[in-house]
Structure to design on (320 residues):
């Protein structure tokens, strides 16, 4: 049984203090710890953090409040609180459903929204204990999924040769609901939060901390939904998920687990524009979403293309 290596644990009192510890180097922030501690225990990364900065000791980072223009969710708000919140369920439905479909009740009670959108990829080569595959995502030379077992990998190509996918369930809901992410330094559109330069990571600087997620108040008559396909009904990462929001013939549609970052299905948005959502128009939007999708050589992940198409169709129908 693998035990976790030693590290220094610091309870941060403020966001500034946490950021300054990060600036000193070789440190990681911890929210619920449901992802970070696993990566440390299994030593999947080339650099083991010497210091872990606990953000839970910082007051006032856990809240759900709506003001005149937006819904604000504190970075450390737990997924279970988001899933159960009546306001979120009624007006920001895609987010509530995404939070509800994440992991297990225990993990949702620990896991936070910020941790969910910052979590690392679940690619099994990346995640193998003791950094056995020093892949491109870790600064190595190759993506082992290209010739290996890639049945869960990207159907929309690689970023810097990495075919791993973003595994977050809440991320596509943020993009579909046009959210913004407030950090210790700036405000970032959710759509731009996942970096393209370093595959699978976020645009956060090494000393930058997510503090709040902001959602514009949905206009009257708008609807949103989240649909997830996983092998198991519970405790399972998405094979493909999809969030959509619709208002007056305009849709924002985002798939995840199909590419290095959440994939905005703009071709599907165009396809459904101005149309009533019905079986045939939703089907056509699903087909448009995957028009540029390609299976990896060997076709092991080809099945995901059909699933992505169906997820888009079902997410749209759920908004009708
Ligand atoms: C068995 C199991 C099943 C799971 N199933 C799913 C699933 O179905 N869907 C899904 O989406 N996820 C799943 N997860 C992944 C994930 O652990 C949870 O979704 C959770 O939301 C992560 O949040 P956390 O607060 O525990 O993150 P942590 O583990 O605390 O942090 C995760 C990462 O984010 C960084 N981070 C945390 N907070 C901040 C912040 N405020 N600012 C900047 N960086 C930050 C950390 O440094 C770390 O790199 C699963 C995990 C497990 C162990």
């Amino acid at each position: 049984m693998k035990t976790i290596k030693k590290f220094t644990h610091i309870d941060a009192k403020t966001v500034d203090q946490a950021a300054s510890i990060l600036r000193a180097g070789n440190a990681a922030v911890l929210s619920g710890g449901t992802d970070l501690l696993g990566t440390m225990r299994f030593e999947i990364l080339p650099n083991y953090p010497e210091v872990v900065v606990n953000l839970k000791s910082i007051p006032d980072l856990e809240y759900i409040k709506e003001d005149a223009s937006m819904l604000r969710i504190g970075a450390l708000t737990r997924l279970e609180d988001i899933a159960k919140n009546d306001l979120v369920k009624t007006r920001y439905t895609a987010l509530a459903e995404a939070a509800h479909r994440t992991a297990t009740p225990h993990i949702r009670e620990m896991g936070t929204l910020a941790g969910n959108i910052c979590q690392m990829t679940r690619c099994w080569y990346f995640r193998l204990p003791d950094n056995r595959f020093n892949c491109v995502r870790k600064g190595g030379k190759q993506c082992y999924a290209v010739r290996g077992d890639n049945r869960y990998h990207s159907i929309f190509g690689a970023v810097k040769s990495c075919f791993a996918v973003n595994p977050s369930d809440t991320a596509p809901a943020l993009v579909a609901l046009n959210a913004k992410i407030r950090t210790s330094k700036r405000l970032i559109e959710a759509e731009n939060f996942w970096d393209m330069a370093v595959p699978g990571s976020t645009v956060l600087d090494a000393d930058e901390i997510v503090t709040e997620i902001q959602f514009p108040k949905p206009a009257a008559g708008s609807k949103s939904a989240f649909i997830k396909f996983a092998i198991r009904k519970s405790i399972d990462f998405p094979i493909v998920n999809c969030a959509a929001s619709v208002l007056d013939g305009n849709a924002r549609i985002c798939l995840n687990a199909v590419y290095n970052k959440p994939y905005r299905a703009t071709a599907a948005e165009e396809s459904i524009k101005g149309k009533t959502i019905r079986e045939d128009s939703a089907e056509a939007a699903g087909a448009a979403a995957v028009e540029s999708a390609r299976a990896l050589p060997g076709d092991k992940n080809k099945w995901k293309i059909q699933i992505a198409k169906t997820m888009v169709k079902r997410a749209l129908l759920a908004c009708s």
User: Anything to note?
Assistant: The chain has a mean pLDDT of 96. The radius of gyration is 19 Å.
